[in-house]
Every structure is written in structure tokens, then in C-alpha cells.
Amino acid sequence: MSDHSTVPDPSLAAIAEVAVSRARAGADGLLSYAVPPEMQPSLDIGQVVWVPLRGKPALGVVVRLHDETPPFPLKVIAAVADPPVAVSPQQLETARWVARQTASSLYEALSLFLPPGAAHQARPYLRLVEPPPAAGRFTTAQKRLLTLLAERGETSLEAARSALKTSLASVVPALEEAGAIERVYQLEGHPPASRQERWVRLAQEPGADALNRAPNQHAIVLALQRRARFAADGSDGFVPAAEVLAQSGSTRASLTALVRKGIVEEAERPAGLSGARGEHRPDTVPELTSAQSRAWSAIEDALRPRNPTPFLLYGVTGSGKTEIYLRSAAWCLRHGRTALILIPEIALSSQVADRFAARFGDRVAVLHSGLSAGDRYASWRGI
């Protein structure tokens, strides 16, 4: 398939098959685009790019590169996503499988691998094609746009519409078709900023009388000492400052004073990497009941040879199903694998995340649509 227009450089030979949203492209969502010469040395399969589609920029993923020039004209890839984003060959293969299994487009499957906020804004700009065209064959409206571009140089489509007090709906396509102007895209926006949280830990134990006249500071130290006793093995001792202040009933000024004295150490970390909030005593692995032991034995027997057969745990609330999920995740982590826990409702995520954080500490990341873009991006990066 192709999105038709004229290639500015007829000697351009490199062709990219790009997966784009099927809602905008139709059929399977795969379109052919010419690769501009400056991109050819660096463009690779899996890279996320901006492409022109129906007069607007669209995000796509390069899924094939070749030199089989089709017998019809092609539009040119507008730009590489900034910052650069790419999917791995394994992710591309997985996306192909997901698309087949779910009857979705390849781009819809690939978008699951892209970080939150990957689709920044691409702003269209207009510029004259060199050498400038002869003015006699254009309408008055077209000549006004050509004059504006000659005076200003490359100009955003929005600014051109504002200056000429018209939508340019028919003017721009006509001039593009005539080879007088070309539309280019400049990327705007940045990855979503991950919200930063202040984390603290005891740097040294204060002297016996050091905090006698500072009860708020003393309360903070007691809260940190309590958290340190309950810290999971391998923990670096840092805990969210907001939680310590809430537990101690103290003020941020008191905490800052402790930092100045060298009693407390602080650091900033992205929020959203752990689902655990509140004070949790590290979980202890319980003895399994006979029913749990039978279930776990069957699951472990399937995990060892990587048998993909699904299991259904059946039991009333409180019968111990979550412990089997925890034990399965722990087994996978010990053997160099990963664990993904799917929860049916966002409302349950905090409760379940707390259980897993008590067992696995800061190795728990939470992703759901109720998080801000920054928190989702922080969790994605952490994973």
C-alpha cells in the first residue's frame, strides 16, 4: 500500500514499510514510504518515525527496509521520533503474533511496547522548493502564500494561516501537487516528566542527648529507626519522606534540620516505581496448607520445563490463592525470569501491590490508566 505524493528526489531508492494506525490507514495499516538520504545510514527496523498521512503527521514503526521501488510515487518519512524510540526484534515478532491472535493491526500491537508519552506533537511547516517556481501559473491565493514563504523562509502552517487569514485548505495541497512547496514536520514536546519524590534514611544514630530539645526531630528519627527494623533484606534503607512525616507527625522543617546535621540522608527518586505505600512489615513466607501444596506442586512442575498450559486457581476469599501467585512470581525471579501480575480492577491495584511489595520490596512497579503520564513513564523506565 502507499500514501501517494511526489518524491522530491527521484533517485531515492530506500523504501520503508511502516506500520501506522489502521484507523487512519485502513486495511492492515502497513504503508510504504521513501527514506530520505540523510536517514538512510541510521534508520533501522523497529524505529519509531513520523510519516505524512492524509495531510497530517502520524506515528509509525518501521517494520521492513528494502530497495524494491514500487511503480507509484511515495511520500517521504518526515522525521525520526525524538527522543529516539525503537522496539527490539523480539518485540516486533511478539507484536506480529499479538496482531494475528487478536485480529488487530500491527501498529496497535506494537504500540503496547512504546513508552507512555512516545507520541509527541509534530507541527507541520511549509517551505519553498528550490529553485522557486515561476509565479505566472498560480492563483492569487497561491501567490500570496508563495510570497509569504519567500519573505519568511520556512513557516509553520499555523503561522501561515494566521498571516493570510485563511485556512489554506485547498492552497497548500495544490502547491504541493505543483512541486512549488513542501510540507515538513518539526517535533515538539518532551517525554512526560516523572514526578520526583523525596526519600530519606538514617545516615547515623544521633547522640543520646542530641535531640532532647527537638521533639519533632526525635519523632522522625524514631520513625526511621522503626522502618529500618522492618526493612527487607537487601534494602538500601531509603523510605519516602512523606510517609515518615505522616508517621511521625513532624514537619518538613524538622526533617531538613536533621539533613543539615548529617543525621538523615536524602535522595530524589521517580514516583510510581513501587506500588507500596504505607508502612509494611516485610512479609514472611508461610507454610502452605495441603490444598496450597497440591496447587503449588502442579504449577512448579509446569514452570520448570516452561510449559505454557494455563492454570485456574479456585477457592473462596481467604483460601490462600494470593500466596500461590506470590510463590510463583518468586520462583520465576529466582530462575532469571520475570513476572507480570494482571489485576481485574484498578481499585484492587493498591491492595495487591502492597502484598507484593511486602514480599519483593522495590522490585514492584505498577502500571494502570489512573496514573499520571509522568508516573506511567517512570514505571515503564523502571521496568
Explain this structure to me?
This protein has 383 residues and is α+β, with helices and mostly antiparallel strands. 35% of the residues lie in helices and 16% in strands. The protein has 13 helices and eleven strands. The protein has a five-stranded antiparallel β-sheet with strand order 2-1-4-3-5. Helix 7 (215-229) packs across helix 8 (241-248). It is flat and about 90 Å long. It starts with 14 loop residues before the first strand and ends with a helix. Mean pLDDT is 82; it is low at 1-13 and 274-280.
Element layout with pairings:
Blueprint: E1 15-19, H1 22-25, E2 30-34, E3 48-53, E4 56-66, E5 79-80, H2 89-102, H3 106-110, E6 121-128, H4 140-152, E7 155-156, H5 157-164, H6 171-177, E8 181-188, E9 196-202, H7 215-229, E10 239-240, H8 241-248, H9 252-261, E11 264-270, H10 290-303, H11 321-334, H12 349-360, H13 373-382
Antiparallel strand pairs: 1-2, 1-4, 3-4, 3-5, 6-7, 6-8, 9-10, 9-11
